[in-house]
Amino acid sequence: MTASRRPLSADLARIALFAALIVVLGTVLVPLPGGVPITGQTLGVMLAGLVLGARRAPLSILIVLALAAIGLPVLAGGRGGLGVFVGPTVGYMIGWIAGVVVIGLIAHSGRFTWWRAGLASVVGGIVVIYLFGIPVQAWVTGVPLDLTALSSLAFLPGDLIKAAIATVLAVALYRAYPRAFPEALTRRGTAAAATAPVAPSVA
């Protein structure tokens, strides 16, 4: 029997929920020299990619960026307005979009496991975001690329901790409520369970 598709309203609610989560986590802020703070916002980005997948997670990011563009203080430290899109953090924000796509593709490429979720969080939530953020930060601030990359090492321990937290939370959510995840992933898990061999009973 084919599983019924999730209502569009349910998807929109989940997308909006993760956009709100990203905004709330932006209130967790540790300033650093160079203009780019350590923020809890990337934890929300990682969770969005893990739970919503490559198709829906970018919509959560775009909602946050759209709200920032119209001036709402939704980014880390209560920032908003068009000025943030020409500041040193703009590359990281662009990286969020690419990052959640990569996270979703890796995490949902097969059975949802802790190692696949962890790999997705590190590759998409750290490496991809850095690849966008560091060059743009160097260009905007006028600091050489190698020095900017070196200074970004200050973010790495915190980002690795956030990747671990995102992995634990996403795996726990998947075990408790798999319907929160993309339908294709849920169907694969259901199909695998249905076709798994059953051990013979001992009379």
UniProtKB/TrEMBL annotation:
Membrane topology: Multi-pass membrane protein
Domain of life: Bacteria
UniProt keyword annotation of Nucleotidyltransferase present: no
Assigned keywords, A-Z: Cell membrane, Membrane, Transmembrane, Transmembrane helix, Transport
Location of the protein in the cell: Cell membrane
Main location: membrane
TM ranges: 12-32, 61-78, 90-107, 119-140, 160-177
Family (UniProt): Belongs to the BioY family.
PANTHER family: BIOTIN TRANSPORTER BIOY (PTHR34295), BIOTIN TRANSPORTER BIOY-RELATED (PTHR34295:SF4)
Protein name: Biotin transporter
